[in-house]
Design a protein that fits this description.
This protein is an alpha/beta fold and 159 residues long. The chain has helices at 16-25, 38-46, 77-89, 101-105, 137-153; strands spanning 30-31, 68-72, 95-99, 128-130.
């Protein structure tokens, strides 16, 4: 972020895009939505041990207030319609983190599970993938930092 500090007046000069991106990446509000065992690791990330509040991560109970949805667990065809509806209710710009093998590619159920979606990216677009079964909370924190880098490089306003 290009800034200039004037000693006399205390003025900061920056681009509007940089200011908006800094505000967005400093306040990521994920939808608290867990489907299976990966949700336990997601809840562990919210615990005081990892202190994700310092990253601006604050879970929201409503899709209308959230700007990122973390798909944590096995996505079945029955649940797919609900996930798509929640995604569509989120305000723009919205992001998706796919957490764990089950949501990434169907996990251990991909071959014999007729009821399992072979990846949540077949339903909604995914921005960041977290690998593992189940992935550790540190891996999810790394995905949030990767998402912050993506948000920082976006351009919201075009002149």
């Amino acid at each position: 972020m290009a800034q200039e500090l004037n000693e006399e007046g205390g003025v900061i000069v920056t681009k509007l895009n940089d200011l908006l991106n800094w505000a967005r990446l400093s306040s990521i509000w994920p939808l608290s939505f867990g489907i299976a065992c990966c949700a336990i690791e997601m809840m562990g990330m919210y615990a005081s041990t990892y202190d994700v509040d310092r990253l601006g991560v604050f879970p929201r109970p409503s899709s209308r207030q959230a700007d990122v949805i973390i798909i944590a667990g096995t996505v079945t065809f029955k649940m797919a319609e609900r996930i798509k509806r929640l995604y569509e209710q989120m305000p723009e710009p919205r992001y998706v983190i796919s957490m764990g093998s089950c949501s990434n590619c169907g996990g251990p159920y991909w071959k014999h599970g007729y009821h399992v979606v072979k990846g949540v990216d077949r339903i909604i677009p995914v921005d960041v993938y977290v690998q593992g079964c189940p992935p550790r909370p540190e891996a999810l924190i790394g995905a949030i930092i990767e998402l912050q880098k993506k948000i920082e490089s976006e351009s919201l306003i075009s002149f």
